[in-house]
Amino acid sequence: MIRRVPFTGEEKQSLHVSLDRHRDVVLWKVAGLDDEALRRPMTPSGTSLLGLVKHLAAVEYGWFCQTFGRETEPLPFDDEDVDADLRVEPHETTADVLAFYGRARAAADAVIDELEVDDVGTAWFGEAVSMRWVLIHMVEETARHAGHMDILRELIDGATGDHPQMAAP
């Protein structure tokens, strides 16, 4: 079933459903592929489907939990290696990365449910940001990377579309 943003929903609900729609696409884009395909670097910069999932998990934790003072598990950010959160290490399994994304999503959802759109936290760069801004940013971030994932998936096995019901083989 495709989630739909309510036509007359409240602001937070609409933003959250929009984010969930793109999150669902992320999971769909990795479904049915083996570990080798998920890890395969598909661009000169080394972008892989599983690397994008790892990155999105890290930014979910960062923007929702760290910004609003909630605990996170250790995150793969490294000032010396700007691509650390995009790279899947040999010891990290596909199941590990997908579970990391699931935990990050659940933690982010708890913060979204708890706070109002006007509540303010402190971004990693020290500026105050509202939950509204973070929701908008994460809809943009997740949609952007879901689009990257659509292209990578098409290069791997020809699958296209933004939801399973719209997929072309």
The percent range for helix content is 40-55%
User: What fraction of the residues are assigned to beta strands by DSSP?
Assistant: under 5%
| H/E topology pattern | HHHHEEH
Counted by DSSP, the helix tally is 5
**Low-confidence region ranges:** none
Question: What would you report as the Rg, rounded to the nearest angstrom?
Answer: 16 Å
User: How far from one another are the termini?
Assistant: 19 Å
Structural class of the secondary elements? mainly alpha
Describe the strand arrangement of the main beta sheet, using strand numbers. 1-2
Shape: globular
Number of strands: 2
Q: Major sheet: size, sense and barrel closure?
A: 2 strands, antiparallel
On the 0 to 100 scale, the average pLDDT is 93
Features:
4% strand; 5 helices; globular; mainly alpha; two-stranded antiparallel ribbon; single chain
Describe the structure.
The protein is mainly alpha-helical. The chain has five helices and two strands. It has helices at 11-30, 35-39, 49-66, 94-114, 131-157; strands at 120-122, 128-130. Strand 1 and strand 2 form a beta hairpin. The radius of gyration is 16 Å and the shape is globular. The mean pLDDT is 93.
